[in-house]
Amino acid sequence: MLRLNQVSAQYNMLNGYVKAVDRVHFDVKKNEIFGIAGESGCGKSTLLKVMYDLISYPLEISHGSVEIHSQDKNGQTRIHTNGNIHQSWWKVISYVPQGAMHVMNPVARIKDQFFDAISKYHDKKDKKELQAEITRYLQELELPPEVLKAYPHQLSGGMRQRVLIALATFLHPDIVLADEPTTALDVVVQRGILTMLSAVQKKMKNSMVIVSHDMGVHYQITNRMGIMYAGQMIEVGPTEQIFNNPQHPYTKMLIHALPKVGDNSQKEGIPGTPPSLREPPKGCRFAARCPHAMELCRISDPARVTVGEDHYASCHLLDYGIGGGNQGAAYLTN
Amino acid sequence: MKNWNLRLKIGVFVIAIFLILGFILPLFNSGNPMEWGTYPKNLKPSAAHWFGTTNLGQDTFWLLAKSIQNSFIIGLIVAFFATVIGAILGLLAGFKGGFLDRLITLLTDSFIVIPSLPILILLGTMLKGRASLLYIAIILIIFNWPWPARQLRAMALSLREREFISTALFSGMGTLKIIVKEIFPFVAGWSIANFVNTILVAIGSESGLAVIGMSSNEKATLGTMIYWANQHQAMLAGRWWWIGSPVIAIALIFIALFLTMTGYQQYSALRRGK
Amino acid sequence: MRPILQINDVSRTFKLGGMFFGKKIAAVDQVAIELPGDKPQIMSIVGESGSGKTTLAKLILRLLDPSSGNIVLDGVPLSAYGKREKRKEFLKKVQPIFQNPFTSFSARKTVDTYLFETALNLDVAANKKEALAVVTDVLKSVGLEYAHIKGKYPNQFSGGELQRISIARALIPKPSLIVADEPVAMIDASLRMNIVNLFKKLKDEYNVNFIYITHDLSTAYYVSDYIATMYKGNLIEFGHARNILNNPSHPYTELLLDSIPRVGKKWAEDVLQPDFENKQENEAGCKFAGRCPYAKEVCHSVQPYMVHLDAEHKVLCMKHNDYQTGNMAYVHHNKNHSDSKDNSRSISG
What we know:
CATH architecture of chain B: Orthogonal Bundle
CATH class of the largest domain in chain C: Alpha Beta
Structural class of chain B: mainly alpha
Largest sheet of chain B: none
Order of helices and strands of chain C: EEEHEEHEHHHHEHEHEEHHHEE
Strand order of the largest sheet of chain C: 6-7-8-3-9-10-12-11
Radius of gyration of chain C: 21 Å
CATH topology of chain B: MetI-like fold
Number of strands of chain B: 0
Oligomer: heterotrimer
Structural class of chain C: alpha/beta
Largest interface: A-C, 43 and 43 residues
Shape of chain C: globular
CATH topology of the largest domain in chain C: Rossmann fold
CATH superfamily of the largest domain in chain C: P-loop containing nucleotide triphosphate hydrolases
CATH architecture of the largest domain in chain C: 3-Layer(aba) Sandwich
CATH superfamily of chain B: MetI-like
Number of helices of chain B: 10
Radius of gyration of chain B: 22 Å
Number of helices of chain C: 11
Shape of chain B: elongated
Distance between the termini of chain B: 16 Å
Helix content of chain C: 25-40%
């Protein structure tokens, strides 16, 4: 499992800091798929990098820590903290970055890309044996073993993404991070990728973190999810709860902004744009776009409130019980 | 200027010195430094003649200044026309494609393949050192426009696939306007580097020809200065100022031009990164 | 009332590979569509990547020429615009919106230059002052203030804003047709509706037809009057949006609908993974037969033909004609609608 303790991260630009992640605090439990949703620029990709300990200038952690609790072969629990996590890449935690399928080495065959990535973490040093194992694994995932001989450009985008997921999960890591795994892919291919991720997780019973701006994706395959806005995680809880009983006004607007086939009602996108993370506004960062903003919202940053079983949201409307529980939801959902 | 890297600064600084030497200082000198017999021969450097005099009775220093001037003039003229012609033809070929492209590419490739030095020597022998600098310049232009043409054609080929070119087309902009306003800003930096490089090549070619007596021997260029110095065994006679100054001048100019070119490339790459 | 757009059996082939051993691929294969011209319409062309929808868009925009067939816009065939002088006429009638708002404009120019250029070059304004009025107006229609975009470069805007500016530029010559190629694909899901709603509004305000190319059925359903589905170069279904999405006739349309990650309904667990690259395609027969749950023997050997389910709904699938082959090219199946519509104009296809 993965734990973030009040983590804040920022980019050190020459003329100031961009505070991309602000006091994010949650756990990713064992045997679950955790989704992170939010618009572009909300910090979700940075958050993933922080989880993966991919911290290099100008990105730095300014506060808090990341912990990974993993079981090794003997059932012993080992704790990795940020700064040391990179020693366990691929084995304990793996990462499929956004657009990874576009930046695969164009002059290396897929099997060589596998070897490059994992051979030093794997016990079997003999290439032939390793290849046999990889082939077996690909077949398990219903991928044709011929892809090993191919170059990336010979495969379609969807196939490349599947190969990358196979690569990321081959060593059975405890945690798999995927940043926008289906963006820019067609719906049919997207469904294939998401089903594959889901199937892999069910088989390995590990944890996955999926970042996507598409709420539909989260509904389909995640167990729990967190909503990010302007660097903060403003709501987190079980996926069903988030969709059936959203508490934060932003979450509500995100859900209502999605068109549904068969639904003729007028859909509105969210007006305005997120605030700059260089100089985040005082108080609640969503206040400027929130239809329910009060004076208090512009002055003080809302604290996290428990709104249900394992369900938290940060909003002043919830502090006073105005929005708590189902009656509140009805009022705000109008 | 503050973002210039060290190379660029050094390169430009040295070129500036030479330009002053070649264009500003001669304004203070009356008379024709090429004329033979103006002064007593082979004087050592002194207050009156900073670099001494040559075996032909010329003041070495002023001769050098005039040579620098002519070499630069050739370099600049050749570079200017070669770059401009190359840019226009290259961008047209790349952007328009089709028959025009094939025609221009045929021309470009033909000229690249023909080795320029033998042709120049051939011409030189036919004209026996009486060729005017103009002819030399024209020949050099003809042999130097294909290089920028090729590069710019490649850049235009890739740029024209960009979506903003389609947007420009649908905004009603004509071909020429698109080339100038949309494509050229991207290739401008490249063209400047090309320009500087062509100066280097032109001066080098002319000097190379001149040293073997194939250039215009009556005129003072760095190459012809070396030629005449050689003809009069300046090296054997130990007249270092006469033979040495143009050689060192050429070497320094080359180095400075090269530093300017690469320094500029680094500078513009950094700027793009921002 | 004549149709605003007629795509008459248009095909476009590309040759892959070298001069002697190249293979011909039909990116667009015998597509025939008619878009009625009685009032402004929004037609979506939906399909996966490789379906040919972008090639079809380029054919309509005259960025490519058809290998066979022709396209007629408001009675005038596109080939008539081939001459230089006529080119401007074409630009006044058809305008594009591209997928990536950040590459639609040169990073080195301010975005308002494009707006002014369009206004001046396409005879919408005679001088800078008039152009300013036109530009301000058209920006207002897309929800932007001129003062907000004046003198700024593309990197100073968000994707959504840039896309609006693209739309504004396309509106300046008051074209009959705007072809938008995946205009919201690069915009966050939660912000897409802002742009898509604009299309609806502008259709009525500016009396302009939109062709909306996408792989996102949800937004297609929401905004379109007509939907055309494409698969591997073929037009496989065409009709009113509501009809198609409530009663999808082609198995591929069904598959597309099923694959949308919907909120409120989870996917069935047991779905066959369809899209493995089948390098060897069946030359004969229906291109979709390999993935089709309804495919029969005949589907693999005989090319399907267009079956008209009613006056404005046609589908390229033999299932709707009981898998019969032979001279059954023009069959009308009046499933839900009476014969009141004028059938004569939609026999083609």
